Amino acid sequence: MKRFFNTRERLVPEALEGLLRSPAGKDLCRLDGYPDIKVVLRRDWDRGAGKVAVISGGGSGHEPAHAGFVGRGMLTAAVCGSLFASPGVDAILAGILAVTGEAGCLLVVKNYTGDRLNFGLAAEQARALGLKVEMVIVGDDISLPGHRQARGIAGTVLVHKAAGHMAESGASLDRVAAFAGDVAARTRSIGLSLSDCDTYDEEHASRLAADEGELGLGIHGEPGAQRIALADAGALMGLAADALLETLPEGDARYALMLNNLGITPVIEMSLLLEAFAGTALARKVALVAGPAPFMTALDMNGFSLTLVELTDEIAAALQADVGPTAWTGMAPWQEPVVIPVPALPDIFAAEPSNNSALRDAVQRGAKALLENEEALNALDARIGDGDAGSTFAETARVIDGALDRLPLADPQALMQTLGRLLARHAGGSSGALLSILFATAGRSTQERWQAALLEGIAAMQGYGGAREGDRTMLDALIPAVRALDEGAAWADIVRAARGGADATARMGKAEAGRASYIPDGQLDNVPDPGAEAIARLFEALVPGK
Q1: Mean pLDDT of 59-70
Q2: Which of 219, 249, 252, 537 is close enough to 298 for a disulfide, judged by CB 3.0 to 4.6 Å?
Q3: Could you state a single Gene Ontology molecular function term (predicted)?
């Protein structure tokens, strides 16, 4: 897999430096101790202010955790290890010494052996130096029932939030630790992923087949509790939500949900997953929601995790409190989407329908031609674009053909106005929008002749679309054909003009507009523009009596 990095050894220090240069790091600083001591802390922190410090950390690769949550209302400092590796005892001790005053500090630790040991040893050394230190261990993973050591995963972030809020309020160390421990005990998480993660290993090979995913996985690339078959988003979300639901005690308790992006799941899919969650039985128990967002990731893992925390009034207030770190995107009430009425849109069929048998017949022939050429035009477009030109023109044809009985076919100006509104509402793609502009402008024209009005419409197409004749677009067929139409040419000459314009695009080595303008020179040789070809085939089908 292609990655942006210099060396694996320098990855974490260089990433932390980048964080400190960014807007998210404007209120942060670090201890001078690279490469062994990688500690990020609040620049505004005053050890003598009488507030408890909250420290967390662990292996890197989970960004924005942990350094991204350093700031007012969350962590005072984050101790960062190498990729998926606990920081050393000296680094943790340095972090404790840097931020701990008389009020003491709380360590929030994920339940992994290395983290427990190293943070525990550092805590003992700090106590030996006379500092007050408490530790809360988070084990929120529910994927391995009965396991003595449940892993600490994304739910750790909610403990950061709760502990940080309590510490910011000026509470004592005992109170902060007790509150954080209570939140940790009420928190449970489960992850689901369609991929494992690559820890910058040149020999990396995925353990999952193309049709497999995993349910119940940690955040270090370790295998999930079970392999699952690939399914749609609703079914996959149902698996994760049901697994959480089974662990909840009976009763009417209300919960906060955190939907966490485990790495590279696209934003649009994360939003879809939250909507999928709304269809689960578990959603009925949720009162607050955070995300979807990356909170505790696993490098490039394509997956998500769900975290629930049972709410009390105090926990709800802590989770909703404002904080400094921008990586915490906030928590808000779970609610149904707010929907307001659509404003009244122009009536597409404002004009009375009327008939013109010759025009009706021509429209039907044109629609039939575009539908019959859908696949051929798509294949042509696939050579230089995204392969949907034929489908776009075919959809335009379906829209117009389906509205034939409601069109004012006997009134050219009203017809063009109606077609403009119809295509604006229903046609897709840039070609549909451009044709809508053509007809809408022509329909507003003061020209006495509808042929001249169409030329005005073409001028509007050029103004909005930015293309001109010779730019290798559908205009290369449309402009000469409409120009011949305006000049009163015979249909054979009109069709010849359209066909000649379309054929000429195959000899144009470079497109100056549209998607084809991004295609390197040489790849367009002898390939006509799909839009121009569609226009030519349309005019060929419009020949009277054909």
Answers
A1: 97
A2: 219
A3: glycerone kinase activity
Per-residue confidence (pLDDT) for residue 202, from 0 to 100? 82
Q: Which structural domain range is residue 502 located in?
A: 357-542
The CATH number assigned to the domain holding 460 equals 1.25.40.340
DSSP 311: -
Instruction: Go through 262-271 and write b for each residue having 16 or more CB atoms within 10 A of its CB, e for each that does not.
Output: bbebeeeebe
Q: What SS3 class is residue 535?
A: helix
Domain count, the chain: 2
Pick from 454, 477, 469: nearest CA to 513: 469
Residues 283 and 318 in one domain: yes
The DSSP 8-state label assigned to residue 73 in this structure reads T
The per-residue pLDDT for 543 is: 85
Q: Are residues 164 and 304 in the same domain?
A: yes
Please give the single-letter amino acid code of residue 490.
A
- Which residue is listed with tokens 């969650």? 277
More confident residue, 451 or 427: 451
Residue tagged active-site, from 62, 204, 220, 426:
220
Q: What is the 3-state secondary structure (H, E, C) of 146-198?
A: CCCCCCCCCCHHHHHHHHHHHHHCCCCHHHHHHHHHHHHHCEEEEEEECCCCC
pLDDT surpasses 90 at 512: no
Is 220 catalytic? The answer is yes
Please give the model's pTM, rounded to 2 decimal places.
0.84
Residue 363's pLDDT is what? 92
Both structure tokens of 323 = 């904080």
Distances (CA, A) of 180 to 63, 249, 540: 22, 21, 75
Calculate the CA 375 to chain-centre distance.
Answer: 31
